[in-house]
Amino acid sequence: MRLFSILLLIITIWGCKGSQRGKSKHLEKNDQQWFWSVGWHSDGEQFVVGGTSDTLKLFSANDFQLLKNYPYKGTITKTKWHPTKKKLAISAQDRGSKSTILNFDDNQSIELDSISIDGARAIGWNHSGDLLAVGDYDGFLTIFDEEGGFLKKINTHQKGIIGLDWHPTENLIVAVGEKIALYNYEEDSLKNIEDRSKDVLMLCVAWHPDGTFFVSGDYGDFIYHYPPLLQYWTYDGKKIKSIEESKAEFRNMKWSEDGELLATASEKIRLWNKNGDLIAERTTENLLWGIDWNKDSNKLVATDEKGSILFWDKKLAKLNELEY
Fold first, then answer.
1. What ranges do the domains of the chain cover?
2. What is the distance between the alpha carbons of residues 48 and 68, in angstroms, rounded to a whole number?
3. How many other β-carbons are positioned within 10 Å of the β-carbon of residue 73?
4. Who's near 1: CB < 8 A, 6+ residues apart?
5. Is residue 286 a contact partner of residue 323, using CB atoms and an 8 Å limit?
6. Model confidence at 14, in pLDDT bands (50, 70, 90)?
7. Model-level pTM?
8. pLDDT tens string 266-294
9. What's 2-323's CATH class?
């Protein structure tokens, strides 16, 4: 358990600057702007970027121009658009920051209560957008209604939740930290899955669009040389396969709308198929943090640890790069 506590402390205090590559430039440049998260709105016209810059940035997806800066206290760790509306759920950490719901139609924001004082790293809407889940650094899932009203709080019995995803058609959440938690909202039931004899921090998780399986990506461990793994799991949490490919942690992932390709953010951008076969990869100058597909799943956007926003097509041909 001590190993996981050390890793979680690194995440909370340093924002995961001490990566798989050990003592590196991440720890030496504390003033660097990290973009943790990126999210493309379902209308395809706009996307948002958040991180350590004390602002949420709204961009045009047509000409990549910055449309507006929204001041934000603390580090934005994750952003999730409402499935049908121009509402954005934002999880945050640091300096008394609050996770919020931001309505872009009236620019009003709602602070979400009952979340760890250390903040949160995981957030997401259910398939219909009437429920919002936040996973915090105390290991609790907190469920809100669409207007930010508190509904319930669930102890997942782990030290912190780092990633979560709702099932595409059911009110079922998969959440990851040092283990996998499957929470059924309708039945109010929790199932925990522990895969390894040593605690290894999982950073991201995503249901396949058909809802029959999910995929997790983890941190590995740079001290004990545990490799970062991409792992495929059945609907009820039985392991299908483990893939040892990346040299650095898997920070984020996103399935294309048709479920044909899974994009992962690490020391490379990679595309995988439903069977876990590597389809394509491209080396990037810096470690990638956020990743998302556009509405038509023919373009990818990713963010990195140096404040860059990068764009590729479906074959990973580079389209553009912005620096902020």
1. 2-323
2. 10
3. 12
4. 199
5. no
6. very low
7. 0.90
8. 999 999 999 999 999 999 999 999 999 99
9. mainly beta
